[in-house]
Design brief:
Elements: H1 5-20, H2 25-49, H3 55-78, H4 81-103
Helix pairs in contact: 1-2
Length: 104
């Protein structure tokens, strides 16, 4: 199963910029957030109604992502920006390589 959550907002803004001949990304951001949130909220309701949520695993992921997001944000305030950028680039490059290798 593919995850297109991050790409939906990107594709939405690309289409809007083509359709409206505007490149003002800041002006498009609120509508994008609202529409993507509504779509994700509908998906959550759908999965819950279908009984497709594994609650113990979901709760563990909820706690881990909240704690990791908070601590990660705090950690990046203390680390040098160059180190954070290097880690970010490498993690994305390695992650993309794994996805590509699975697809082949």
């Amino acid at each position: 199963m593919a995850d297109f959550g991050g790409a939906v907002g990107l594709m939405m803004m690309a289409m809007w910029s083509l359709l409206t001949a505007s490149a003002d990304l800041k002006a498009m951001a609120p509508a994008r957030v609202l529409l993507v949130s509504a779509a994700n909220g509908a998906a959550v309701v759908w999965f819950i109604a279908a009984g497709a949520v594994r609650w113990p695993e979901m709760l563990a992921m909820l706690v881990a992502s909240a704690v990791g997001g908070y601590l990660g944000a705090r950690l990046t305030q203390w680390l040098p920006a160059r180190l954070v950028r290097g880690f970010h680039r490498r993690s994305h490059r390695d992650g993309n390589r794994r996805v590509l290798m699975r697809a082949i």
